[in-house]
Amino acid sequence: MMAMQKFINRLRRDEKGSALIETAFVAPFLVFMSLGGVEVSNMVKRQSELQNAASKAAEIIMAAAPEDDTATSAMLTGVAAKLEADTGLTTHVLGFDQDPDETKKNVAYVMRRYRCGNSKTFKKADTGCTDSTNAREFIVFLMRDDYTPVWKDFGIGETLQYRVEKSIQIA
């Protein structure tokens, strides 16, 4: 019994290897925190990319405001190509009579819409407000994307959905 007591006392005084044991407890948490930091920065980066692409597209339209429908169509096609190049999203130009498919992901839309007076919503051309003296024409950019973080593979969290919408008045 005395030998066992001496052995336990010797282990209590011995500090060799304590740093290794402490590191073994702390290291997994540090790894997960680092992984989380990287994932969050990737999420923020993608959101910034989408916002910047929408801002650049708006700048293009503001720099060369179209004068007629032909010029508007040509400009929308060019802006759609620029959005696709900047974001990697499949980009579609929609006319007045088309609605974007809100169920699709990894897609961008460039649309012509009207806003009637002080309305908070955009309308298609066939809604009747185009004859109004206070109807204004807008170009609307809508981008939908998603990001799946690494930690979803471990059953934590879910896929992040991006939806960036920007509008600019042209008439």
Automatic annotation (TrEMBL):
Pfam families: TadE (PF07811). Residues 17-58 form the TadE-like domain. This is TadE-like domain-containing protein. It comes from Croceicoccus mobilis.
